[in-house]
Sequence to fold (702 residues):
Amino acid sequence: MDFACKKSLLPAFGALLFFLTVQWYGIYFMWYNHPGPLGLEDSAGYMSRIAFFREYPFFDAARELLPSHPPYSVNEIAHPYLYGLLARLADVPAETMFHWNFYVGLLLMGIVLFVLFRKIEVSPMFVVPALLLFAFYEGEGSYHGFSWVVPSFYAILLFLISFIALFYSKRPYLAGFPAILLLLLTHSTGLYLAGILMLALFLNDVFSGQAKQGFRKASLLLLFGFAIMLASELLSNSGTLSKSFSTSFQSYQDIIGADGITGGMSWTQAVAFLFERTFETVTRHDFTKYFFGLYTPLVAWGLFRVFRNGRYPLAALFVALLAGQLIAPLLTKLGYRFFYPLEVVTWIIMAYGFAETLKVLRAGNPAAEDNGKSSGRPLAKIFSAWALVALSTLFFYNAVYHKTAHNYQIKFYHPKFFDDRAFIDYVHEHRKKKIVIFCPHLRDYLYLDDLWRFSNILHPDKASPETIAGSPGQYAVIGEAFRLYEEKRHGFSVVLPRDGAILLQNEGMTPGTYRLELNDSGLEDTEGLIVVSGDRKTAEWRSRPYSVRFPDDDAYPPVLLPWYLNAKKTWPLFSRPFRPDDIVRTVPTFTIDLRITENGALLLQNKGGKKFLHGSIRLVNKHTRQEWVLDFDRDNKATLEASAGLLYKGKRHPLLWTDPEISKSYRTAVFRLERNFGDVKAFSWYAGNIEAPETGSVATTR
Fold:
């Protein structure tokens, strides 16, 4: 390697190191003391697939012994299978491997971008700015960019590898076909991306004046893809795979159907519908800012220089992706999700244009970029170059802000405060029972250690309330009661039926004047609520705002990169700081003053409609300032039942729980708390309908 080559590599390697530092730190920042799995709601789905292959690496699971259907299809199998095997070899939980996957994926992406950029233009004047820019690539909306290292990320990674192999390697098919095979097995967009590569192959030769050769290449790639799809259908029909390509595209709903074009439409209505779909795509913010918005000059200039300098593979890929983005909305209502690869290539085009601008300024004469021919207006071109530099700087500044803001958002996004180790132990302790988990999907818990091997875990759809009531001792119930997961509370809560009362009792309640508070209760009002102490009744409730806050203590790493500092200050040109406060929601706290005349007890009576209580009940002695708190979110069974109970229809019951948004068949069922893991709790069946005229005939567990 000569000195000039080494000299060009050093800054490029430095830029690669910067890329990895920024991207890895972003993951570390989000993961640092994050409660529960990192990322979006569907993180549990990705982890459960990894956990499945950790337990069953050779597809040897008997389906009747599984708590759920095997979570894989042919076009999404590569990622969970590989990381499931790695989790098994490293003997680490699926959640840990999922987090490691972020670092591994970003390392691979950095290497691929490094190679790709040097294939496009070996000069560090392009490679370095491009890597510096992509260090802050984050994505947007439903396509998540480099912040979300899941199968869609690896699809982009393999798409770029396939592009390098097909356009820049000496043996394009020998190198390209294995990469495309992995691409097809990684994500449902793989077929679309393979089609883009096929079109780009054709366009590249068209731009080079060799259309016939391009047609032959594209046809060969088409035949290869068809063979893969045919093999997947055969494996699906044989039962080896649960889904083939043709059956796994249901998430990308075709527009021919109830929600799209129907047989009753005229051709003009159908055309208008298709035009509307395309219009929705091109007017989205993430599309307009590049193609008819503020940053359009950067794209136009970069594209001009790409064509001018004969970088036809990159030009062909861009044109193919742009065409695909305009066509995708005509085929699926989720067409905007295909913007991910187009944005990546658009950033490369912009980085190339920026490098060309630097060359103009470095030469000091725009004519130097035109093989010595006179430009005629060098001053105007230099002024234009500086304008492009200023706009590029603004784009880079926006990218830094967007990445940092998104990292702050995800860091505090959908936290799950629960003791997963205690939960796993509970499941093991009750392996002889059927465990019904009230949750949207069983995958939300199957990522935890060994739970794929528990065929006794059921979704509520697989266990009727009548069946549970018939033999309640054979069932355990798991319910969710997330405190900070979303702005609005939902999940299991304490039920207070009409004409019922919660008995609050504590030996520390000596006679005196008190203030009772209902904090984060989930109640919108206190209509019908009466506090009874001895023969005294009061219903003079007051309310004041109560801010439920995220516990920020020790939430941040000990060392912050500069752009993560001052999270509560607003950056210039932006309207809000990254984290203006730690408030999750602001709700009313209801307070009432009362006098306790008898030691140790008072009633919270309900004369209104049925109510559901979250949060805590706090009682403060106004003279001694001594306080007593009943915390439904954190207190265990012994504490709650020693301090409170439900009085209803002349009987005393323990505090009873239900989910007001539960499935219709369970809507009247009530449960008794057994274990409190935090946001997740274990219950036993209590009654099918405590409000029914006769509840004695309903099977109960006491």
Residues 32-245+257-411 form one domain. The chain is about 45% helix and 15% strand. The radius of gyration is 31 Å. Confidence is low (pLDDT under 50) at residues 254-258, 371-375, 694-702.
